[in-house]
Amino acid sequence: MSILTREQGRRTVKFMADYRDVYRRSLADPETFWLKAARAVDWVTPPSRALDDSAAPLYRWFPDGELNTAYNCLDRHVATGRGGQTALIWDSAMTGQVRRFTYEQLQDQVARFAGGLRSLGVGVGDRVVIYMPMVPEAVIAMLACARIGAIHSVVFGGFAPRELAARIDDAAPKAIVAASCGLEPNRTVEYRPIIDQALSLSRHRPDVIVMLQRDQGVARMDERDVDWFELMSTASPADPVPMKATDPLYILYTSGTTGRPKGIVRDTGGHAVALAWSMLNVYDIAPGEVWWTASDVGWVVGHSYIVYAPLLIGATTVLYEGKPVGTPDAGAFWRVVAEHGVVTLFTAPTALRAIKRVDPDGTLIGDLKTFRALYLAGERLDPDTYHWASERLGVPVVDHWWQTETGWPIAANPRGLEPLPTKPGSATVPLPGWDVQIQNDGAITLKLPLPPGSLPTLWHDDERYIREYLTRHPGHYLTGDGGYLDDDGYLYVMGRTDDVINVAGHRLSTGTMETVLAAHPAVAECAVIGVSDQVKGQVPLGLVVLKAGADITPARLADDLIHAVRREIGPVAAFRDVAIVPALPKTRSGKILRRSMRALADGREEPMPSTIEDPSVLENLRPVLRPDPS
Ligand code: COA
Ligand code: AMP
Description:
Blueprint (H helix, E strand, L loop, with lengths): L18 H10 L1 H8 L13 E5 L2 E4 L4 E2 L1 H14 L3 E7 L4 E6 H17 L7 E5 L4 H13 L2 E4 L6 H11 L3 E5 L1 E4 L2 E4 H11 L6 E5 L13 E2 H7 L8 E2 L3 E7 L7 E6 L1 H13 L8 E4 L6 H13 L3 E6 L10 H9 L3 E4 L1 H10 L14 E4 L6 H11 L3 E3 L11 E2 L16 E2 L5 E3 L4 E5 L14 H9 L5 E10 L5 E6 L3 E4 L2 E4 H9 L4 E11 L3 E10 L7 H15 L8 E4 L13 H9 L12 H6 L1 H4 L5
Parallel strand pairs: 4-17, 6-7, 6-8, 8-11, 11-12, 16-17, 16-18, 18-19, 19-20, 30-31
Antiparallel strand pairs: 1-2, 3-13, 4-5, 9-10, 14-15, 21-22, 23-24, 24-25, 25-26, 27-28, 29-30
Helix pairs in contact: 1-2, 3-4, 3-5, 3-10, 4-5, 4-8, 6-7, 9-10
The protein binds coenzyme A and adenosine monophosphate.
Protein name: Propionyl-CoA synthetase
GO molecular function: propionate-CoA ligase activity
Family: Belongs to the ATP-dependent AMP-binding enzyme family.
């Protein structure tokens, strides 16, 4: 039986159906499944087919469709009578400000900024780096790029100049759109010096920097720079440009196992279709409802679920500038939920752990009348935090698993389709479109093709995409995570199998940290491992072997290395722990056994690798990697 549920928005039809049936149909006949889902989006040229597999293993979705994402996020809602509805609520715990934008107002601002960018020479296919904190102008800049077919690349504010430089060189932007500063609880982060340093390190030069001057810190302007407000006051609004569904919408860089970040490409059509589908079928959100993702626009969660998905379906999205604790207290999240009538909150487990540590009894939670569900991702939701949140909040708590590459969840409890029983520790079930398989070595892979919304490739680097993701298990995408499926088909994601760690929900490369440590003159060799942390999930630990005769105290070396990582990668790396060790465990051929150290740190008793040169070296690290809690 198929019935229309609640208010679904124009042409969006949701079928109440058994999850298993929908899942099976999505894999058996993706063509029909996704063409039907595509009806939730307004097309300039509707697609006549869904999947283009002519260049497999590279796939494209909706190859002959044309649309504009900003139009779908804004104009179509204004055209159908939602112009007066609030589209965006900016709530800044850092400044005490709240600003609301209706769909009409946001459309006007976006069209104006799009016109401004165009007047600066930015056009279809040009890249724009957006380096901004959690201010509404970041959302406006992203949507303005989408409106004129420019490809945005947002860079998270917690990265150091070198990381920004790497992204500038890879994306080669025509313009940088920046704010003068970001606000952290203990300091104001001035962006201008970071941009200046990044540009002194990068080969590429953008034509122009558009600067949003914030009251909390005014940036120096160069002659060629443009002030955000001046640009807005003179710009003529730009109309949305029809884009091919396969055109890139944005590039978002994420950490790989090497020092070079990966430029994840998101296409236009598949992205819009998948996100719209997920809001209704996974998150159970309808147009007009208030949705809040407490993340950062610099991460994929922010791209998909602060900006694009809620606006695509005509919901109200909250943009929060602040922290879960300390701005001013551990009741900040619950204040935002109560004050703005939030129905569903999406954040990272680490935020909940931070709140729980300060307010274990949940005394600051209050009466959350509108609150319906809590979604958590970015790292595994540990059962303790799951139970704490469920008991204190009294709403379903959903762990769901995804990655920058996939753009939307791979596994979740599909509450919009059919709420399933929860198993603490499991991300519930694979979602329609994702053929999740477990390989013999425990690696989680996704059988190709990946569904719409997932990455088509890496920016200008098909070859690296194929090499790093599609080669290990031919016909499959390698997620980099390990885990298992239980007899009921529930997925348990147990952690990365490569050199990527998740620190407070932030994805970081230990390989990049090792490169920084290895550059120190006293360091002979080193390894960086993620070790468990009660709040952040994991934190990096640097293990270093000194060069013979190195004349440096342990305290001085630790200080040098901590500062170096902060300077080269950024404060977000949260690198604070260094241990000097006599040796690192290696194979007989001299390869450092990082996997064995990771297993020891995670408390997994793995057999000693047969290739190990000296088992006692690994055994001696036990107290460092897994200190006795007493
Ligand atoms: N710009 C500049 N610096 C930033 C930053 C930003 N956008 N975000 C974080 N930093 C800095 C912090 O100020 C801190 O600097 P410090 O070493 O001078 O104190 C450092 O990076 C580490 O930050 P973080 O790991 O966030 O630790 P924290 O102790 O400040 O806060 C939490 C801990 C749990 C409260 C916080 O990490 C949090 O809210 N996490 C949620 C993560 C999230 O939303 N992830 C997205 C995936 S869903
Ligand atoms: P990112 O690309 O920054 O979103 O990080 C993706 C990685 O975060 C995944 O590969 C996982 O290692 C981890 N991750 C995200 N969500 C979950 C989850 N629900 N359970 C376990 N790990 C997760």
